[in-house]
């Protein structure tokens, strides 16, 4: 049940009252004084906008969220697709990672680059996209 805040009209004292959403939101104390309800501005979600080009922004916001590894990987993939859409379909950060990977391993490609895009046989073809 939601908590509502009320302020005494004379003393300014504030209290929290648990009330149902469908109840009338009025608080009257034992002396018959009706308290004023205190309204707060809406809370905004500030973690939703991560700059896909800023590594520090990604690290700070994912550390603050406290999600699991799967959440981290999903957000990383989303940012990669945003970078690719802003850069003609190619994510330069991902491409640089693949290039560095191959350089460190004597030209061997990253496993994601080695994935088959399709398979063909006599009279059939499967696309893995």
Mean pLDDT: 84
Main structural class: alpha+beta
- According to DSSP, the number of beta strands is 6
> SSE string, helix = H, strand = E?
EEEEHHHEE
**Distinct helical segment count:** 3
Any low-confidence stretches, pLDDT <50, length ≥5? Answer: none
Strand order of the largest sheet: 2-1-4-3
Q: Calculate the terminal CA-CA distance, rounded to whole Å.
A: 46 Å
Q: Write down the overall geometry.
A: elongated
**Rg (C-alpha, Å):** 28 Å
Helix content: 25-40%
How many domains? The number is 2
What distinguishing features does this structure have?
single chain, 129 residues, alpha+beta, 2 domains, 4-stranded antiparallel β-sheet, two-stranded antiparallel sheet, 3 helices, 6 strands, elongated
Describe, in plain words, how this protein is organized in 3D.
With about 130 residues, the protein is α+β, with helices and mostly antiparallel strands. It folds into 2 domains: about 5-40, no CATH class; about 55-110, no CATH class. Helices cover about 35% and strands about 20% of the residues. The protein has 3 helices and 6 strands; from the N terminus they run ββββαααββ. It has a 4-stranded antiparallel beta sheet with strand order 2-1-4-3, with no helix packed on it. The two termini are about 45 Å apart. The mean pLDDT is about 85.
